[in-house]
Design goal:
Layout: H1 2-15, H2 17-53, E1 55-63, E2 69-76, E3 82-86, E4 94-99, E5 107-108, H3 113-143
Antiparallel strand pairs: 1-2, 1-4, 2-3, 4-5
Helix pairs in contact: 1-2, 2-3
Length: 144
């Protein structure tokens, strides 16, 4: 972050205020794009880990004493420790959940292959589009 700030100051001194302002605004899609790519890599690595060593269990929806359901499901891991899976998308009394035995707090509801791939592909395309926008803005700032 400090290196980017220094780069912006350098551009402002050598190229003028327009270049400095453009580079300052370019930082928004740069950091959003890099953050989205990092989040996507983490999400894909969790999915890969669950696909390799995940255990599928049946989770039961938690309810309060009056019978009103909470937005999470509870399950017991193979080591006997209870864990929860938070979701607002599912309303059923039970739900199949895949968890990682090395990190039982990482859970996912198994889904179809195509929607998952389309979701991650769309997210990566948006992240790369932000980075392309930042590269174009930088090019336009220094073209003059």
């Amino acid at each position: 972050m400090l290196a980017y700030l220094g780069y912006t100051i350098w551009a402002g001194v050598t190229r003028g205020a327009f270049a400095a302002v453009t580079l300052a605004l370019t930082g928004i899609p740069v950091f959003l794009g890099l953050g989205a790519i990092a989040a996507g890599v983490l999400a894909v690595s969790v999915r890969v880990g669950l696909a390799r060593r995940g255990i599928t269990v049946e989770a039961v929806r938690a309810v309060d004493p009056q019978g009103i359901p909470y937005p999470w499901y509870e399950f017991t891991a193979t080591d006997g420790v209870p864990y929860t899976h938070y979701t607002r998308k599912h309303k059923t009394p039970t739900l199949h959940v895949v968890y990682d035995p090395l990190r039982p707090y990482r859970t996912k509801v198994p889904g179809s292959f195509l929607p998952v791939v389309l979701r991650y592909t769309a997210a990566y395309l948006c992240a790369f589009a932000m980075l392309a926008l930042a590269a174009f803005m930088t090019y336009e700032a220094f073209r003059r």
